[in-house]
Structure formats: structure tokens, C-alpha cells
């Protein structure tokens, strides 16, 4: 069992690295951060930066493709179904631990699955960190509530 895990989200690379406490990369995943840029303001649709913890894990045992509305299962997404910025498969709800990002949980900023898997690898979200459903399920199974998350530009993450 890994004693400490850190999720480092590089906005520059549109990549999430799961690391152990020593900084060894255990797994890399492509992601999508906000198409509106970085920021902290309520209603901005920007991805916040800085340090966070996983405050809640939602979706245990749900099948891939389940749509969450208000963090509750609300049916399934199928290819070809309409919908923008849907929350699919799993949710890792982030809580900001710095004054600038303290509103992150109330903004409902998550790491979650998306139906727009073609948009993964470029900024396309409405503030959250999007992942492919298979990837977010894999990540969900590897992390725990309380694990640290860092979101930033490359030079800030690995300085």
C-alpha cells in the first residue's frame, strides 16, 4: 500500500501524474482543464490552481458512463447523446487548502469523467479536471480521501 499519494495536474501538459511520497510517478493520465483559463472566482468556469485535498470520492461501484447530477446517479450517457460538460463515471471532489482556492469545494470543482473524450489533452472543461471514464475509474481506485492534489503550470508543480 502506498503511504502517501500526490496528484499533480500540469495545465501546460494537460496531464495528471499520480506520484508516491518520494515523487516517483506511478501513473500518468491525459486530462482537460478549463477552456476559460485559470482562476478562483465563483462563476468564472476557470480551473483553480494551488494545493487541494480530495474531500470526497463519489461513484463507488457505479458502472462506466453513469451521469451524475448533483453528485447523484441520474442515468447513463451513450455515444451520440447530447450534453455538454457532463460528469461521468466517478467524482473526486476537491477542497482548496489555500486562501485563494478555499472556495473550490463550494464551486463544485471535481476530477471527473467526461463524454467529451476527444477533448482530453487540451483545455475544454468548465473548470473541473476532466478525464476519460476508464482513466478516472482507475485513478479513483488508486487514491483515498485526504490525498493531496496540486494543480498548476509545469514550472510551479515541479520547481
Question: Which features does this protein show?
Answer:
mainly beta; globular; ten-stranded mixed β-sheet
Summarize, please.
The chain has 159 residues and is mainly beta. It has 2 helices and 10 strands; from the N terminus they run βββββββββαβα.
Q: What do you see in this structure?
A:
- The chain has helices at 133-142, 154-157; strands at residues 5-10, 15-20, 25-30, 50-58, 66-69, 72-76, 87-96, 110-113, 129-131, 148-152.
- Strand 1 (5-10) and strand 2 form a beta hairpin.
- 38% of the residues are buried.
- The protein has 159 residues and is mainly beta.
- The two termini are 27 Å apart.
- It is built from two helices and ten strands.
- Strands 1, 2, 3, 4, 5, 6, 7, 8, 9 and 10 form a ten-stranded mixed beta sheet that branches.
- It is globular and about 40 Å long.
Strand segment count: 10
**Helix proportion:** under 10%
The biggest beta sheet reads: 10 strands, mixed
- What is the arithmetic mean of pLDDT? 90
Report the C-alpha radius of gyration, rounded.
14 Å
Number of helices: 2
Class of secondary structure makeup: mainly beta
General form:
globular
Low-confidence stretches: none
Beta-strand content estimate: 35-45%
Question: Terminal Cα separation, in Å?
Answer: 27 Å
Order of helices and strands: EEEEEEEEEHEH
